[in-house]
Amino acid sequence: MSKIYEKYSNNLQRFSNWDEPELYVESGELSSLYLPSSISIDFVKILNEIASEGNPLINEKTKILILGKEILNEYRLIIEWAENEDEGKVLSDYLDWALIWRILYELDERFSNLLNSYKKDEIVCMRNFVKIYFKHWLDKLYLNNIIDKNIIEKNIIEQIENIFSFVKKSFEQLINEADWIGDESKNKAKLKLNKMKQNIGYYKLIEDNLFLNKLYKNYKINENMSWIEMFIQLNRNYYLWPTIDYQASFFVDGYYKWAFNSLAIYGGIMYSPWFDPKLPESLNFGGIGTLLGHETSHGFDSFGFNFDENGDRIDEKEIDKETNEKMEEKFKCFIKQYSNYENENLRPNSRFTLSENIADNAGIRASYKAWKLFTNSLKKFKNLKMSLNEFTDEQMFFIGNAFTYCSVMTEEDKNNYAKTDNHAFPKGKS
């Protein structure tokens, strides 16, 4: 087990393009494409077992969406290595353990007691279970609670939506000012921007009981079922949930989803240092305004530019090759620039952070320009405490932005961050 983990960890940095576009392949090709020649798995049969109850929904020609084919190739290399390590015992031991792990709760006390000595508190485990399999209803309970208590105030949502309206205006100006983008590509980019959906504060459909009932209509569980029967039912329906633009409202971050061309900023992050209605707008534009600009930029970064206003993959025949070539050159400039910021001993491959670096740069430019559209003043504020009084609101914009990146990292934190997080180190962002 430790050998496989070590091999996987060491190889993680070999991913040269973390933000590669998605790929559709026929389900019948999965085994030959992503498994060693010595291994064959009937993925069509497995997917049908997961997705249906005796009514096959999938055949060999069914298109399957692959996210991160390079990572799957990496798994294939690890499997090939494990096949030959210790005469195949490494792979055999891992498969034995993987099988036991999946059914551990169904085995006798020798196994469950072993697990109980390592696992978290049972209450924590059950909370996680509910968050996975009943997340939409849990989100509704959460929203009912915080809205009733005015924890998320309607006027705060309206203020942030107003900031976003200025960010979108500034982004359109940035598109118009980019002399390296062809006219047709500019029009398509502006169409995508104008059609970008938004959820500020929380996912609005969670308030719709009809929507929720439709999601859970196939949940067929009752008190006469065994635990394993319930688990199989829940797991099957979990994978059958329709793909929707959704993240729980207690999620503390913002995100952009290319498949829906949609952006969200939820209640968990609508507080200081990102936003405070009592502070000058320059600080708020520097904070949550830049976050809104960052997420908007993901629609046009090294990954997002492959998709149109509806979230569909752009056909190669429709790509503006001249603009595309110029964009690739700019990607190289970003990689070179951030290679100067990153610690090469920790993270030798700055392509790993490319899409996030693009979003950081474009995001702050869009937010700064948005703030300039919001106000043309350079006044000083009299009501700020102590040393902040000496700064203009223009300077306050950048202070507000830098404040969101304040962090302290141990050497262990830095090592883990370099291997697992595709954002630049905070010092390289502020």
Automatic annotation (TrEMBL):
List the record's Gene Ontology CC terms alphabetically.
Answer: plasma membrane
Record's keyword annotation contains Protease: yes
Keyword vocabulary terms for this entry? Hydrolase, Metal-binding, Metalloprotease, Protease, Zinc
Task: List, for all copies, the residue spans of the domain called Peptidase M13 N-terminal.
Answer: 40-202
Which residue spans traverse the membrane? none
Q: Which first-to-last residue range defines the signal peptide?
A: none
**Residues in Peptidase M13 C-terminal domain copies:** 255-426
Its BP terms in the Gene Ontology are: protein processing
A molecular-function term among this protein's GO annotations: metalloendopeptidase activity
InterPro entries linked to this entry: MetalloPept_cat_dom_sf (IPR024079), Peptidase_M13 (IPR000718), Peptidase_M13_C (IPR018497), Peptidase_M13_dom_2 (IPR042089), Peptidase_M13_N (IPR008753)
What does this protein need as cofactor? Zn(2+)
Report whether Zinc shows up as a keyword of the record: yes
The family assignment reads:
Belongs to the peptidase M13 family.
What is the protein's name according to its record?
Answer: Peptidase_M13 domain-containing protein
In which organism is this protein found?
Answer: Meloidogyne hapla (Root-knot nematode worm)
